[in-house]
Design a protein that fits this description.
This protein is an alpha/beta fold and 319 residues long. The longest helix has 16 residues.
Length: 319
């Protein structure tokens, strides 16, 4: 164990907040069994009290300490995808505190796929509540610098594990209902419907009206301070011309080359495949947000299964 990890685990046991990297985004971690420590997460983020948190575990052997009535499908998925960007919503054990679950009878659990996160979780020895390490509703952090810039002294320590390799939040899969209800995706991520169906033999459904509340499911989320607009590929040229006519400094994130060059237009070229696009998305939005433009215009990706997680984040950011 490195001195840095030992210090981080010591701070967590003392009820402090420690930000750490995962493969998805950086999380702001607290002892998930300590109500006072968890309350610091809500205060640091400005997060609504009824918005549940995800508990991060060192490995799947800790599942039974946090969840009950665990279906076989959950254990198969954990074996297939943990460590990895998949959160399972399960019936909670009675001892799980209400602040973690938002007062619901369910809890979200996952094992992150990042060496620093796993080393910290093993050193700490228990579950860590760890939502994204940013102000509530804003762009998620994918570097340690993002965390420091946004939260400052609200966290006692920031573990720097470099840029996150997935770049957007985990898939959230609900397995808390009766067995005949099957599973439901409550938040899309880079583990998609086909991958889940290949493991459990049944494709998950979409979220229902009575599905549990989960992280990142509000209509407006992942948003820069600058108003963001999604436009089709065909609408990009019009959006550029409109900005020039209105004399509005506008930032663009698009996979196509800049059609018109002008001093009012800031153009960032985006990757053309979903995985690298997702990896760079939040850092790109932060960069464009810092330019002080009137608007950010993003070329909408295709509405195909591989792009669904990215499209979900962009639609919420534009809401």
């Amino acid at each position: 164990m490195t001195p840095e990890i030992a210090r981080a685990a010591e701070l967590l046991r003392a009820g402090e907040l420690v930000a750490f990297p995962t493969e998805t985004v950086y999380g702001i971690g607290a002892d998930a069994a300590n109500p006072a420590a968890v309350a610091k997460i809500f205060a640091a983020k400005g997060r609504p009290q009824d918005h549940p948190l995800i508990v991060h575990l060192a490995d799947a052997t800790q599942l039974d300490a946090w969840a009950r009535d665990i279906p076989d499908a959950a254990r198969k998925l954990a074996a297939a995808f943990w460590p990895g960007p998949l959160t399972l919503i399960l019936k909670r054990q009675p001892g799980v505190i209400d602040a973690i679950t938002g007062g619901q009878d369910t809890v979200g659990l996952r094992v992150p796929d990042h060496p620093l996160a796993l080393e910290l979780l093993r050193a700490f020895g228990n579950g860590l509540a760890a939502p994204s390490a940013n102000r509530f509703g804003r762009i998620s952090p994918t570097t340690a610098r993002h965390v420091r810039d946004e939260l400052g002294d609200a966290v006692a320590m920031v573990l720097d594990g470099g840029p996150c390799q997935v770049g957007i939040e985990s898939t959230i899969l609900d397995l808390s209902g009766p067995a005949h209800d099957g599973s439901a995706i409550l938040r899309p991520g880079m583990i998609g419907v086909d991958a889940i169906a290949a493991v459990i033999g049944q494709a998950p459904a979409a979220a229902r009206g009575d599905s549990p509340r989960v992280s990142g499911s509000l209509e407006s989320h992942y948003a820069p301070r600058t108003p963001l607009e999604l436009v089709s590929s065909d609408g990009l040229v019009f959006a550029v011309r409109n900005a020039i006519v209105k004399r509005e400094r506008t930032a663009f994130l698009a996979s196509m080359a800049q059609p018109i060059h002008h001093e009012l237009i800031s153009w960032r070229l985006a990757p053309t495949e979903p995985e690298p696009f997702a990896r760079a998305l939040y850092a790109s939005l932060r960069e464009l947000d810092a330019l002080g433009c009137a608007r950010i215009v993003v070329q909408a990706p295709p509405a195909t299964p591989g792009w669904l997680p990215v499209l979900d984040r962009l639609r919420r950011a534009a809401s």
